[in-house]
Write the structure tokens for this entry.
Amino acid sequence: MAKTIGIFDSGVGGLTILSSIVNEVSDSVEYHYVADSLYAPYGAKSIEALLERSRRVTEFLISKGSELIVVACNTATTQVISSLRAEFDISFVGIEPAVKPAAQLSESKRIGVIATANTLKSGLFKQTLETYASDCETFTRIGEGLVEAIETGELSSVELNDLVRDHVRYFNSKEIDVLVLGCTHYSFVSQLFEKYLGHGTSLVTPNEAVARRVQSVLETLDSEARSVRSIYVYSTSGNLWSLKKLIAAENLQVDQVLQVQI
Ligand code: DGL
């Protein structure tokens, strides 16, 4: 068996994780990425609906030979990754808001987390806050409107600029010194967040940590490296134009972009 990694997100957001993984992983691997854009956003879906989508996408990625699946979505990780691990006999790596590094980095002990409604209300997130940030005052906010705006692929739109500015205004008013981007989509506009955040406020994502985790799980698998790296990207929506635009924004060299019905 040759090394194959499956990755999925509700849409384009996980491409930011895919590019961190591609930069970190030394072996030539075949990547299969699913943007479940027809069913995005995941942020306010019921657990049943999230599990149903995640299950279907997982089965598709396994049919492509994936031996490791990266749930490149904070919402799906915090809500359903434990069910996926119980149902499927392969390795999963998830992503959740980087609260631990944020708490360690914060000097004022006032941190912010922007994420989806489902992530913020999840038991896993609350537990992470209790375990790693009990010495911090934490301000959370749902990134209302951001996923939908980023899915359009129009990263320079006035609408997106104003949305980010308004979300950041809330955090600036709380005088935080670290902000966690708790949704993979938001990394596409990290520069906009930086533009509006107060001086001395750092932005934290878990992208590099997830990529290192993927590398270490890969090392435990018996499969062999390939001679070349290849990347296949699938979307459940017919709008491949915005997907291609965001692939280019991440500088990803992709072999094929296809629409799939899952
Ligand atoms: N990108 C996803 C996350 O990290 C999901 C966003 C959504 O679909 O609401 O949570």
Q: What stands out?
A: The mean pLDDT is 95. The first strand starts at residue 4 and ends at 9.
